[in-house]
Amino acid sequence: MSANAMVKAEGVHKSFGPVEVLKGIDLEVAPREVFCLIGPSGSGKSTFLRCINHLEKVNAGRLYVDGELVGYRQKGDKLYELKDSEVAVKRRDIGMVFQRFNLFPHMTAIANIVEAPIQVKRESKAVALARAEQLLDRVGLADKADSYPSQLSGGQQQRVAIARALAMEPKLMLFDEPTSALDPELVGDVLDVMRGLAEDGMTMVVVTHEMGFAREVGDALVFMDDGVVVESGHPRDVLTNPQHDRTKSFLSKVL
Amino acid sequence: MTVDIEKTGPDDTPPPPTQPEAIKAIPVRHYGRYVAAVVAIGLFALIVYAFSQGKINWGAIPDYFFDDRIVDGAWKTLVLTFWSMVIGIGGGIILAVMRLSKNPVTSSIAWFYIWFFRGTPVLVQLFVWFNLGLVFETINLGFYQDEWSDFMTPMLTALLGLGLNEAAYMAEICRAGLLSVDEGQSEASHALGMSQGKTLRRVVIPQAMRVIVPPTGNEVINMLKTTSLVAAVQFTELFRQAQNIGQSSGAPVEMYFLAASWYLVMTSILSVGQYYLERHYARGSSRSLPPTPFQKIKSTVFSVRRPKGVTA
Ligand SMILES: Nc1ncnc2c1ncn2[C@@H]1O[C@H](COP(=O)(O)OP(=O)(O)O)[C@@H](O)[C@H]1O
Ligand SMILES: [Mg+2]
């Protein structure tokens, strides 16, 4: 199991200046697993996700994605920082979905989706467009291909953002509170798309406050607080029978 | 009406809203506006009268308005404006990216450049370029060598002087534009595996354009007028041609008015261009774009033609 983990963190530390945000994270995400991260605001969940995708540099410890060290190359016992271009190559295989969608507002939905495949993977326009149409259909927005993000609801934007990430055919998808910025009635559509992805066997790391989704779809769950993993296990166990006081008090507030 | 309400009564749907009577109020009278208009017209008439009585031979202006030399000068002014702005915008983008880069060397170079070129008058810069022959007697680019005075033609002096100075101003405009784009945008782009260069070109700069274009339009219009300075370094553009004609024909002041009219016509045309460019870069930023003047005229005409009852 541990040899072929999709994500493996060993004592991951991350500081911003004097502030230590991650204080030694250990965890493992198996392939095809839906791995949920929960915890109070400011506990370091986003920072950890951003480390996985090289958007932040780890200060200490080791972080592996699909067996490869994140951010550095190891030669003997020396670590070399990766060049920007090498980092960009690694990011291709990791899809990321943001709380605030971050669609490119000057491009239509379908242009958002084909952008990276054409620019980064040098796919032909026809191939990229055909896949983008399939993806739009899959997230239930086949009729919105030519809409600009400003003409879409939050839920629709987030589904386009998911399609955009999927267009790079990633082996791992990271979700950072994908439904937190949405009106309650729009949350369901986005979660349905994520559920579908999980059923298709996508490896997913999901930061979420949707405990229903975690319980139903999640394979593993970690409760983080103040930069450390407080408790982990199967979502059903952690959510219904938390062991730690901090977990209990957090769950009593969100459930 | 009442019959309808009784029909829908059982299933609890609210009655259709009755149309309230349109308000017909007497509008506020803006007497101040009439007074201001009368005063303005009066003043304008006085000024026109004063000028018409002056010793100015107005007839000379139409005589020379489309003189070959004037048309050629205006064309040179446009060409110079265009290429100076190309240098200015290109240089400005490069300087802005340099200033925002994490590399301390490149960002200090950009800072120094902007500091120098913004801190000295463009007319002085033009003279410096013109007289650089005192420093460099010859130029040798390996594949090209020449006397400095032959190399540094009035055209090149003008281009370098105006373009390099403009780059410093454009750099600040571009920097403001780049900074106006949400950080989440480059983050999303990087997360898709796009390189820093691609992120800039495909994601950040197109969005920064919305902030960059309006002040750049002003810069173009400004540049068109500033080109008149290069008359001082022997470049015969519109203003210098007008001056030349003025001296030879004995109507110098008339030719200044002629030049002013040409500049006014050209800046007005540029303003229209700017309007459409701004619309282009507003794409996707607002749900519906404001109508163009042409669309406005069209819709007015149509709404006038449309019979009263049809308008909803
Ligand atoms: N770029 C940054 N610079 C400084 N502090 C940061 C930065 N990013 C996050 N932090 C801090 O790190 C802590 C954890 O943030 P975050 O990972 O966003 O938490 P969460 O996603 O769990 O709410 C917060 O206290 C936040 O202020
Ligand atoms: Mg967060």
Q: Give the neighbour order of strands across the main sheet of chain B.
A: 1-2
Strand content of chain B: under 5%
Mean pLDDT of chain B: 85
Structural class label of chain B: mainly alpha
- CATH homologous superfamily designation of the domain at 66-282 in chain B: MetI-like
Rg of Cα set of chain B: 29 Å
Overall form of chain A: globular
CATH class category of the domain at 66-282 in chain B: Mainly Alpha
| Assigned CATH architecture of the domain at 66-282 in chain B | Orthogonal Bundle
Helix and strand succession of chain B?
HHHHHHEEHHHHHHH
Low-pLDDT parts of chain A are none
Report the portion of residues of chain A in β strands.
Answer: 25-35%
Number of strands of chain B: 2
H-E string of chain A:
EEEHEEEEHEHHHEHEHEEHH
Helix content of chain A: 25-40%
Counting H and I runs of at least 4 residues, what is the number of helices of chain A?
Answer: 9
Count of separate DSSP helical elements of chain B:
13
